[in-house]
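[PROTEIN RECORD]
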Amino acid sequence: MSISVGQNSSAAAQNTSGAELLTAALSKRQQEVEGKMVLQLIQSASVSNLPAPSGNSGFNVNIKV
């Protein structure tokens, strides 16, 4: 918002506040959409879909000191 001598600043403030409200509303909506996407991603990556390990690989670790 710019300030000039002899102009009504309330009219300029009303114009910018409308744009700011629109920007805030769009930002909120975008965050809600992204939040839903993240929840769907987390639910699709559940651990119960993994197969059980087979064999003895990884159970014995040889360490030399």
DSSP finds one helix and no strands in the chain.
